[in-house]
Amino acid sequence: MGLDNLSIDTALKIASSLQVSDICSLGCCSRFCRQLCDSDYLWESLARERWPYINGSSSSTLAQSSISMGWKSFYIQRHIEISGRAQAAVKFVEQCSPSTPIEGGDYLRTIGGLWDLKLSFVDAQMVLFKPQLNELLNLVGLHYCRIWLQIPANQIMEALQRCKIAERHICVKWWKLGRWFYGFRMRDEQQTRRVSLAELMTEEGEDVLGVLSRGAVHEVLRVQVSVGDSFAGHWSRQST
């Protein structure tokens, strides 16, 4: 039995459990399905689930915009706008050489730009959790979701595994101010950690994520982040 034979309430309940891509495909099946998949009820639910901040009073302009143009049109327009503007972060990281570390300050500014765009967890997955992207872009998405959006680690881990990027590796290098010893300051300490994205969601990777979140502050003089084992090649060339 197809959706055409169901009551509108039952059909809407079934359709509301589908992904956006599935809803768009369903709308091509029949006139009834097209009308069903154009329903404001359906698209309002999708929009509020994807962008929870629409529910806040500070986003009344967005809510009014959705009412005036219809929820489906609002959803499509918002999706295109966010995806397009988020490409600025993507282009910045992609322009960096794979063998050249990114400075901690630039890295944190990139994440801050995502916050200014009000990217949701779904947005970050769609834009940044792609295996064909640079590992640093995957890291930016992970960091933004965990620290800025406060998404639980287990949910992020599920997304990493679903997108097949959990075992991708990044390297973080930081310099700490040398300790004082009998009136003399020792040489600045240097640490390098190579971790997978999955490890950053465990206790083992908490210290690395903490360094990335704080950046160069207090005793940490400098932070750099790079792809996989690229630090080794970069620093061996610097020393020759």
TrEMBL record:
Gene Ontology cellular component annotations, sorted alphabetically: SCF ubiquitin ligase complex
TM region(s), chain numbering: none
Any matching Pfam family: F-box
Gene Ontology biological-process entries: protein polyubiquitination; SCF-dependent proteasomal ubiquitin-dependent protein catabolic process
Domain F-box positions: 3-44
Designated name of the protein: F-box domain-containing protein
Source organism of the structure: Cucumis sativus (Cucumber)
